[in-house]
């Protein structure tokens, strides 16, 4: 074997060893999920506000059809109404503390397009938005700076800006919205979204203009039947949290009562 052959063999051996070393390198580890900072709520003996949390006709768009004592909401879908978003705001707001409410899509509606069959309507065809708003805000979440919401497309809307911060959700999934107005919490003045008991968004800051004001549970929906639960969540969260139905007078406020005898058509 000549001197050149010996050098070549030595060099090739080195290259093989280098390749082996590269192949043995471990892939980078995925970053760990942020630690849950929400703590279990302290048991409260305070009496809840008198009115049962529900949706008053004056705080609903005309295409909302409440059923089962307002616990299930349906939209009108005839004559082109399937293209419109329905909106409903609850009659009890939160001004401090941490509270949760829950929604579930129980039916996906596919109304006939009528004469427009074959034409592509506004997308998405089915939509849900869940969030909070001030008492005098628009019934359409995200239209102004006095409401915030998560939607079924995985987006969060605040100050009329829409960003992807969570996950999509659909029929038969339990969706919980947590509002944290506890000044002592690291998540103070935020909203969070949970799907089937699992956090799917990090706490999202409320706009400065909403801080310090009572905030009311608020939903928008299109071509779905929506079940709304203001009581204890049907799927446990990673921490114990009081429901909106448990809001006491010290932490909440009720909407003005509707005049008796007034009908909304």
Automatic annotation (TrEMBL):
<feature type="domain" description="B30.2/SPRY">
    <location>
        <begin position="22"/>
        <end position="235"/>
    </location>
</feature>
<dbReference type="GO" id="GO:0003723">
    <property type="term" value="F:RNA binding"/>
</dbReference>
<protein>
    <recommendedName>
        <fullName>B30.2/SPRY domain-containing protein</fullName>
    </recommendedName>
</protein>
<dbReference type="InterPro" id="IPR043136">
    <property type="entry name" value="B30.2/SPRY_sf"/>
</dbReference>
<feature type="region of interest" description="Disordered">
    <location>
        <begin position="1"/>
        <end position="50"/>
    </location>
</feature>
<dbReference type="GO" id="GO:0000380">
    <property type="term" value="P:alternative mRNA splicing, via spliceosome"/>
</dbReference>
<dbReference type="GO" id="GO:0005634">
    <property type="term" value="C:nucleus"/>
</dbReference>
<dbReference type="InterPro" id="IPR013320">
    <property type="entry name" value="ConA-like_dom_sf"/>
</dbReference>
<dbReference type="InterPro" id="IPR001870">
    <property type="entry name" value="B30.2/SPRY"/>
</dbReference>
<feature type="compositionally biased region" description="Basic and acidic residues">
    <location>
        <begin position="1"/>
        <end position="38"/>
    </location>
</feature>
């Amino acid at each position: 074997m000549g001197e050149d052959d010996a050098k070549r063999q030595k060099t090739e051996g080195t290259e093989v060893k280098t390749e082996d070393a590269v192949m043995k390198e471990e892939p980078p580890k995925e970053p760990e999920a942020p630690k849950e900072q929400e703590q279990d709520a302290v048991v409260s003996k305070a009496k809840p506000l008198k009115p049962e949390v529900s949706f008053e006709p004056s705080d609903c768009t005309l295409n909302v059809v409440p059923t089962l004592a307002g616990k299930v909401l349906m939209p009108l879908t005839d004559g082109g109404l399937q293209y419109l978003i329905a909106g409903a705001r609850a009659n009890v707001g939160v001004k401090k503390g941490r509270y949760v409410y829950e929604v579930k899509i129980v039916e996906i509606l596919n109304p006939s397009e009528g004469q427009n069959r074959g034409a592509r309507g506004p997308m998405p065809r089915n939509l849900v938005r869940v969030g909070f708003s001030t008492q005098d805000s628009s019934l359409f979440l995200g239209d102004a700076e006095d409401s915030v919401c998560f939607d079924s497309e995985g987006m969060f809307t605040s100050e009329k800006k829409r960003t992807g911060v969570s996950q999509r959700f659909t029929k038969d999934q339990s969706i919980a919205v947590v509002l944290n107005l506890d000044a002592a919490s690291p998540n103070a003045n935020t909203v969070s979204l949970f799907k089937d008991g699992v956090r799917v968004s990090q706490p999202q800051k409320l706009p400065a203009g909403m801080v310090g004001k009572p905030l009311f549970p608020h939903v928008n929906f299109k071509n779905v039947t929506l079940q709304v639960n203001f009581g204890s969540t049907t799927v446990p969260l990673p921490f114990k949290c009081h429901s909106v139905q448990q809001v006491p007078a010290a932490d909440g406020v009720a909407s003005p009562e509707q005049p008796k005898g007034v009908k909304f058509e």
